[in-house]
Amino acid sequence: MPRYLVTADPVASFQPRFDTTLRLMAELLARGVEVDYCDLFTTDMSLGTDDWLAALPVRSVLWSDPSRPPYVGLDAPRSAAALDYEVLVHRKDPPVDATYRGWAERFAALDGRLLQLNEPAEVLRHSEHLLPARFPEFSIPTFHCREFGEFAATVRSQPVEAVVKPIAECSGIGIAFFRPDASEPVLRGWWQQYGEAVVQPYQEAVTTRGDLRILTIGRRILGSVTRLPRPGSRLANLHQGASYHAFDPTPRQLEAVAAVTAELVPRGLYLLGLDFIGDLLSEVNFTSPSAMVQIGEVMHKRPEVELVDEIEALRRTFVARP
């Protein structure tokens, strides 16, 4: 049987109600797959890359059940090499900060010698908030601001209101809405807190149609769900109190999914969460895409079964570089 290693945050930080990782591990174990877990915070970053990859602190996953505290059973810690496994599944949540990049750079040194979801070199090469700009025909106009002057000018150039996002954050953290006449002290206060930013024009459809997540693995759509902001809010993130509902993708959204996956899957970005407001792409999530549980609930199915089917198909066809 194949061997999988899941790299992630500490188990204590998992949110079992909606955690994708727990359900992925449970499905792998149900198929008799050997699954190990590595808490990235326990790795010794004083080691050189080769030594680090050869001595990862891992623990065998004995069971995984989001309804049964402590939700996952782990064997005693031991040391293992990354190349002892056929598949590495990276589930570390953002922010994509210096610590995150340090881990990803080490795994990127494996350079195609085993299947990694998602390929760390490509994760480092892109930004979830900026990827829509690679597909302008399908996307909300997206601007990358590296300096405050550029940021202020971009906010002021939006026709009605600007949505600003910290480039390295997720789950709605730091998102703000600024009208073109926002004062410089207000804009500078946000910039001093978050720095490098992504700016998009506000889309009113977020309050009526919500923020649609389409989850894909390879070229296959696992399902979709829309997140609607809670009353009085315009943040459609579940971590910010949004509700979730069934919502079928439109033909235009499906066209965008086909274009995005055609470009990104061959690069090793296999598991994606594409977000749409109206028919326009707003983000492409690839660090640790979520919403699988919500998709399962609104579509009345178990998408983790399809997810593992596709990962196993990728594993069987993966050709490692020497």
TrEMBL record:
* Residue ranges constituting the Prokaryotic glutathione synthetase N-terminal domain according to the UniProt record: 5-102
Q: Which Pfam families match?
A: GSH-S_ATP, GSH-S_N
Q: Which residues form the Prokaryotic glutathione synthetase ATP-binding domain?
A: 128-298
Protein name per Swiss-Prot or TrEMBL: Glutathione synthase
- Please give the coiled-coil regions recorded for this protein: none
Q: Which organism is it from?
A: Nannocystis bainbridge
Which InterPro entries does the UniProt record give?
ATP_grasp_subdomain_1, GSHS_ATP-bd, GSHS_N, PreATP-grasp_dom_sf
